Amino acid sequence: MKNNISLRAILTCSALLLTQIVSAQDNSTFKFTQINPGPFADNAGHWYSISDKHNMINALPGRPKYKPTEITNIADNILLFQKANGGWPKNYDVFAILNDAQKDSVAAAKNTLNTTYDNGSTYTQIAALAGVYTVTQVEKYKDAALKGFDYILASQYKNGGFPQYYPLENNYSKYITYNDGNFEGIMRLLKDVADNKPQYTFVDTKRRATLTEAYNKGLDCILKTQIKDDGKLTAWCQQHDEVTLQPAWARKFEPPSICNGESANLVTFLMTIDHPSKELVAAIQGAVSWFEASKIYNTRVKTIPAERMQTPFRVSTADRIVVEEQGAPPIWTRYYELKTHKPLFCNRDSKVVYSLAEVDRERRDGYAWYTYNPQKVLDTYPAWQKKWAPDNDVLKK
Known about the structure:
Layout: H1 2-30, H2 41-49, H3 71-81, H4 100-108, H5 123-136, H6 139-155, E1 176-177, H7 182-194, H8 205-225, E2 228-229, E3 232-233, E4 239-240, E5 258-259, H9 260-270, H10 278-293, E6 299-310, E7 315-324, E8 332-333, E9 335-336, E10 343-346, E11 352-353, H11 361-364, E12 370-371, H12 374-388
């Protein structure tokens, strides 16, 4: 009788344990049963708003889209747009239901290597494919993701940085690029691999070690490119020279400077790293101090009606002004001048100015000159500081 009870108890426990294991597996794959359109939104938005003669295909009016749950159809689109070198071009909608002629045009351009990380390209597609493979176990999705990882490895500079385009182009896109989350997006993906997240268990041991090494090199590059003024760490530029690591010009209205928008998102990522090194702690502390020191108070940017104005670059239908408003939440300019730390603006002629009012109207209302992004860092900092730098709260100095 006792043996029967013991056997029954063992079987019951085993069944419960098996149920828990299966349940955990189901939970780990459930989140991959749909593909989030959010990370692809920048690409899709450009495709629908800009008809470009250089595009492989342009958006057709009234065409339907796949639902986020139609993961294999979306993944097949992602495979279709993947280039021969493993990367992806920018500004297409992988949720679009393409007609046969469109599919043929995309397939015919496999060897046109305009592959990039801009607008969330490449690292977003790899992450989506990994999720689809996790659910379906269909080999072609794994193979395409691995090919994408190899593209990332091929594109990385020896110093750990990443360009905007690879193969390299002979313009500012060859610089190490933080703009639009370029570097950050790649690093978040590599961190997930290094952390052995369940959707990346298919990555073989050798390649995982190489990707982890690339991640560590990337962290080292981030630390080396942080701008130091008067011996104090501040933040980063939108782009840094790939050889000297110094802040560099991008477009004619994007000067070398301390760039708070991109830097804030980068620091938010750095704060997710467990057991940060003392160098990484110092980098975060320096950036937090900078964001606190560069706050602008009692200021708000307002969009106001304006006459429609056609320019060679875009149509302007509004204007922006800076107004004084007591009690307005702190705000930051996108750019701060190196050394002087004065808020910085710029026109398309590369002429630097020091107020939004001095910017030509087309750029004044057509570019994000102010940002609230650093507030996210300042809000996150107290919990991070208590955990990783309990003896050094830079906001209380």
